[in-house]
Amino acid sequence: MATGLTEPDAPPRPAVGPSVAPRRRRRLRHPVLVGILVGLGAILLFTIVWIGVRGFLAQRALTDAIPAAEQVKTAIATGDLAAAGRAADSLSRKTHEAAALTSDPVWVTVEAVPWLGPNLAAVRTAAAASDDVASRVVRPLVAAGTGVDLRALAITDGRIDLAPITAAQPAVAKARAAFTDARASVATIETGALVSPVASGVDRLHDVLDKAAPEMDALGNAVRLLPSMLGADGPRDYLLAAQNPAELRATGGLIGAVALVHADNGAVTLQRQEAGTSIGPWKTPVADVPLNTEGLYGPLVGRYLQDANLTPDFPLAAATASRMWTTTYGGTVDGVIAVDPVVLSGLLKATGPVTLPTGDRLTSANAVKMLLSDVYQRYEDPAQQDAFFASAASAVFDRMSSGNVDAKKLLTALADAGESRRVLIWTTHAEDQKVLAGTTLAGGLPASDLSTAGIGVYFNDATGAKMDYYLRTSVAAGSAVCRADGKPSTVVTVTLTNRAPADAGTTLPRYVTGGGTYGVTPGNIRTRVAVYGPTGGLLAATLSGGENYTTVAGVDRSRPVSLYTVELAPGESKTVTVQFLNDQQTSSDLSVVTTPTLPGDGTTPDVGARNAVAPIVVQCSSVVK
Hints:
This protein has 16 helices and 20 strands. The protein is of the alpha+beta class. A six-stranded mixed β-sheet has the order 15-14-18-12-11-20, with no helix packed on it. A five-stranded mixed β-sheet has the order 5-4-3-6-9, sandwiched between helices. Strands 16-17-13-10-19 form a five-stranded mixed β-sheet, covered by helices on one side.
């Protein structure tokens, strides 16, 4: 039997009393680590509070900036530059506050944290861009005053004071560069991984800047171009070409009348007016026309003024028309400006109605119908028609030169006309032409790059008359990747409709229907349609009703072209589809331009109305690969 207090195999009894102390010492074995963790927790808590509070204050500052931005816009629109200046200062203070709150070292350091960091970086970038726009764009432009508010410019005794515009050029150039930088910085923000409120805010700012970009570009171009083009650096002479869309040409309409306009230090005078038929024709071309262009449109482009713009390349058409004028009348021409009666109707909103020598009252509401339809019902003699057109142009020009015009409405009308491609400008001065080249005013062939395919749809009358007043056009386009090599295919559908009355062949004047002179049944409309594909692309097919449609396949300036003819009786429609393979593009993005046409139903189109291009969903099963 074992002796002692316990059995030998009995488990040890738990320690009591003083033996508890070692356990307490084990809990405090790493006091430094605990301190570090507590410190990190405090820092984390501080950082969260810091970021949260500053983010909240920044968001509030940006929210408060919105009314200030609206006040700037309203004040500029009403011409109250003092109020615009105060609102611009307020806007700048708010955006600067938001930028400062989101750019301190703590904020920037936390941007390195996964998930949270991209959101903070996006907020900082957006706030900085907003501050740049407010302080480096809005405030300088407001400070520049009337020099950048072209609507405030007055025409006095036929002259525009160019000094304020010239003085504003440096400020506008800097503001435009700052705007471009701010827009580019916002465009670099990847919103896919951002939380919804941040992504939504970035998208909203992106949209605002995108919508403002055309206005910023237009302002920059106008301030840069107006002084030189209006003779600030020496007199200039321009050929003003009136295009008649009742007889379509690719750039807008047959050149029915021309005038020489002289500009000298802001003073603009009408020197000479002539009917288009008084110039030429020539037995051989008077200007150089590329062989590919001549192969598509024939030798008339270089021989007849009325056919110089069969090509959609306005710089080529303008240079040809300029050569024709100087060959006939001598002198020099510094540029060509093309307009149509729709532009005239817009100008009449600024000048108010004018009374013609015939007693007719020409208004913005009746100008298009009177000049493109009524005049042919009234006068059978083309010489009388030309005289009526000339009197209308002179009356509007005289009213504008007198200074009795609403400058704001005038600028709006011209801007709208430029956007809808109803005003086209070409100049022999390289610096000015370089600025124009990037605008809708240039009228060049649609530009293509590696990401976007430039598509053009152009209409030329083949009736030999004025029936295009009744022609309605509709264009739709889309693109998709349907091939294994990843090259996109583009599909363009063009629908033409003859909206002339059923008895047009007998009730409309012979001058309007053509009387069958060129083999077209009176009342019918014959149109040649040229569809241009992207640079370097390939024409895949031209179809109608699922069947091959007769076309002339060509190439113009490295672009594939499908040139086909459509003839329609009154009330008839036809749709033709053209397919291209985009050989150089890596995406299915499209940019489509068309000849500006009339509604075709006798209504008066708005000067800013564009020929809208509808999007279509491309079915790969129907694409020729």
